[in-house]
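Appendix B. Raw example, untouched.
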Amino acid sequence: MPHGTRHKDTSGVNGTTLATSDPAKNLTPPAYSTDQARTFVGATTVTRRRRDGTRYVTRTESVGGTGIYHKTVVSPSPNGSGSTTDFYIQKDGKWQKAATSTDGGKTYTFQNGADGKPIAGDALRKELNDPQGAIHKNVNAQVTKAAEKNNQSKADTDAAAASNTNTAQAEPAATEPKRINAQDVNAAIGSNKTGTRNKFPMTLTYPLSLRDSKQDKIQFNMIEYVPGEIGQGQLGINRTNAANVGSEAGSESKSDKTIGRVFLPIPSGISDTTGAGWGEDRMNAAQLATAGAALGFIEKGGSGLVKSIEDTLNSVSAYSDDVKKAIATQVAGSASGTGPGLLTRTTGAVLNPNLELLFQGPTLRPFDFVFKLSARSQKESDAIIKIIRFFKQGMAPIRSESNLFLKSPHTFKIRYLHDNKDHPFLNKFKICALKSLTVNYTPDGNYATFRDGKMVSYELSMSFQELDPIFNDDYTKLDDNKDTQLGY
């Protein structure tokens, strides 16, 4: 049985109950039916190279696609000349015959529904008639298995699955597409080390009076790290919970896995630095000519290459004296070991480097906060200890049970709050990692404790950095470019 194909499953897509109208009921021998199976169509195939001990293994996996519940009924001809293969799918809560094959499953003709449109979708029709399609292979493999189970002769089996000429090789590829997501990765790495903390207090506040106050404050939500998704029909990495937009204090989006929360007064000296990576780039005349020729060939083939060379020769002819001088000094400089400096020494000029400042990529914003926490009561002193522990333990790496892997620490969503809602005139944050935490136990310059040993004051210096860059469209998503808030 191909890996990932399910049988006798009474649950439908998205948890709905499959219809009980079974096309396999009341079949008259020698007709027989396959078991119910589920195959994904429209999936994207990706190739991954992994290390397996001392060697590397290349594995092909499928991601995405739509799951189709299907069943096949085969009716061999009474005279043994062939068979009819009827392909059924679950649609609109019932089994519907979507396609029929009269050549042993090589090709199918498709049925229309009451609305005159094909019962099978475009991707299903394409892959069912494709010998390399996952559902084509799965159907043939299941027909072969059903034929053997129902004691059909070898000739009947071969006729019913004539197109499955390499079943043994095809079965491993005809698997239900593997979804590459955070849950799969975590399952492969293994469970967290026993004792790993994934639950923290949800209402830690300093000072205690801030809890029920509408005073402006800063909120730190600790969340479980969620890796970005790769290969989900996009040409980049997508982090489903990258944005940090809420409404009321303490509210989170459905994609959050908030495991702790702290409220603190907004400190002084808050700021944000938005940047972009730009750098100098140089290309002299020879490099430009070579690049132009290569680009012309790539874009237009031989004609583009010829055109680029002609343009370069025309330029050389127009400025022949300058070109001769440049070539002569370059050759002489190389021969004498003086390099390009000979041109400058003899003429006072240099080759035009065509210097330009070019965009090189985005940057990730850092954020630094300093909080001085001085207790004014026993309860407040206890809250301060819990707050420090919250950040210290939350930023620590997580070990797998086997100790073979180290998982990413928990991350943080940060929000400035005004009237217990997102502050519209201070910057917003994307998810941040806590990169460093410094605790000063004597911020007043002297060692002082309460009777139980807790310090009179603590000072926390924290450095965060966002996991994802800020992009132009991120601002649009906030207020549809109405400019009613500061944004990121």
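End of appendix B.
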